[in-house]
Amino acid sequence: MTTIMWFRQDLRLHDNPALHSAVSRGDVIPLYIWDDSKYPWKPGAASQWWLHHSLAALDTSLRNAGSRLILRTGNPLEQLFAVIQESKAVRIHWNRCYEPYARKRDEKIKTTLKEQGIEVESFNGSLLFEPWEIQNKSSTPYQVFTPFCNACLSKAVPRAPEPPPSGIRAPEKMPFSEKLDSLRLLPRIPWDEQFYHYWKPGEQTAISKLDQFRRNAIALYSSRRDLPGSQGTSQFSPHLHFGEISPRQIWHACINRPDSRQTALPFLRQIAWREFAFHLLYHYPDSDCKPLKEHFSHFPWSSNTKWFNAWKKGQTGYPLVDAGMRELWTTGWMHNRVRMVVASFLVKHLLIPWQQGAEWFWDTLVDADLPNNTMGWQWTAGCGADAAPFFRIFNPMQQGKRFDPEGAYIRKWIPEIGSLPDEFIHEPWQAGQQTLTKAGIKLGSSYPFPIVDHQQARNKALEAYAAMKKS
Ligand code: FAD
Q: Do the Cβ atoms of 269 and 149 come closer than 8 Å?
């Protein structure tokens, strides 16, 4: 009896409950389907780059276990039927996806396949707890992080991760597979050259990064996690998004450190933020495009293409914002502190809707993840669950001075102002002509003047907020 293991956001062999169960039942066909139609939040360009390499890595792991990855392009239901017909498989396994579009798709597929006598089993391979398992005393979803996190911590310890299968038995005849290149996931114009320098997608990389992080960096996580100029965070996010590593693997590796659980907790709280994001999107499926606080739908947003483009290109004249946007473009990733600053700048200084920023992030992040991206943007815009109040407006200069005091991060991403002394690196327009000339800078030409004045932009944002409250 053959089972199709339909891989989606679980591109790994370790701790993969759907695969584990499929292997225990006999022959397995490992399958990935690239849906090339248009649908909401289809992976953006940077994510497609990651996906290409992650699929290649998964195929290698499967071959080492005696099997290989079957690739198909097209409508998932049609492709599943085609593979069933070619292979006479009787069963399909998958690990659950929680995004609104994927949930609807999977429900339809499950019903249709069951009607045709095909067994379908789904598993939890992406979360510590199912989004419906954590509820407050009134049996409603949480909207505040701390009680949500406490509720998670008070639950039974997530079960230990499962080992990878020692071998995966293939049926006598494997169905047809397309070549990875025919999925056309890599860009035609090679804007991705730098990505190779920063990332190596795949399960093996994720596992060795976890091992190194738990041994060394985790103890320094609390003190360094907010400093974009130091490598203080784990950079697990794309690996987690594509399921090259599971949160259970991370949880158990970190909690079982020899020193103490206390050392691991600040980091594990971030994994709980991820759980919270999934919880929110599951219970509020419109929140990817609609504000959770409904009155924000009356917010008087502006539209300014020139400013939006300046923000995207890292040409706003505010060094911390520009450094972040250039890090994003070059590497497909941005430090969390800086994500908050650039998002706040777009929404509050430029009054551009958070949804536009979320879409740009979606296309450019290698870790673009609908629950996390939605929560991050709604949080920053002040309209989400447990959000920063709108009137708390990040000051990009103060944020820079506090979290990048010597400007290491800024000097890396904006070399044209790299020779400024520390005191002006966060606000070059405050430097005198002599200092600018000495640093080789001509404001307005080698680096822009600020596109908006901080104080005026702040006042305008507060006025817009007051207008929304009155409406
Ligand atoms: P670490 O600090 O090492 O944390 C470990 C893991 O915990 C992360 O990989 C991530 O899965 C989770 N995590 C950490 N911080 C958060 C958080 N604030 N919210 C939810 N989960 C968190 N994260 C994404 O994975 N994809 C996104 O598309 C995304 N978009 C964001 C947009 C905005 C506007 C903001 C403010 C944040 C966004 N985040 C997103 C959350 C966060 O910035 C990243 O998860 C983090 O920077 C990834 O780096 P890391 O793996 O080194 O994090």
A: yes
C-beta separation of 186 from 52 below 8 A: yes
> In terms of C-beta distances under 8 Å and separation of at least 24 residues, what long-range contacts does 293-297 make, across chains too?
293/382, 293/383, 293/384, 293/387, 295/468, 295/469, 296/381, 296/382, 296/383, 296/468
Q: What is the pLDDT of residue 256?
A: 77
Q: For residues 46 and 85, is the Cβ–Cβ distance under 8 A?
A: no
As a whole number of angstroms, the distance between CA 274 and CA 432 comes to: 45
What sections of 25-160 are H helices per DSSP?
A: 45-64, 76-87, 100-115, 145-154
Ligand 1 probe mutation, 126, 239, 269, 336, most atoms within 8 A of CB: 336
Question: Is the full-model pTM beyond 0.90?
Answer: yes
Distance, in Å, from the CA atom of 135 to the CA atom of 308, rounded to the nearest integer, reads 39
Closest residue by CA, ligand 1 atom 44: 336
Q: Which atom of ligand 1 sits closest to the CA of residue 247?
A: 11
Please give the Cα distance from 207 to 39 (Å, whole number): 32
Residue to substitute in 198, 270, 369, 383 for testing ligand 1 pocket (most ligand atoms within 8 angstroms of CB): 270
Question: 394 CB less than 6 Å from ligand 1?
Answer: no
Residue ranges, the chain, pLDDT below 70: 258-259
- Assigned token pair, 335: 């430090």
pLDDT in tens, 8-58: 999 999 999 999 999 999 999 999 999 999 999 999 999 999 999 999 999
Q: Can you tell me the distance from the alpha carbon of 238 to that of 436, in angstroms, rounded to the nearest whole number?
A: 39
Strand partners, 70: 31
User: What string of DSSP letters covers 437-470?
Assistant: HHTT--BTTTBPPPSS-HHHHHHHHHHHHHHHHH
DSSP alpha helices (H): ranges in 245-313? 247-255, 261-283, 305-313
C-alpha closest to that of 77 among 44, 29, 114, 26: 114
Using CA atoms in the order 185, 325, 361, 399, what is the torsion angle rounded to 10 degrees? 150
Which of 126, 127, 237, 251 best tests ligand 1's pocket when mutated (most atoms within 8 Å of CB)? Answer: 237
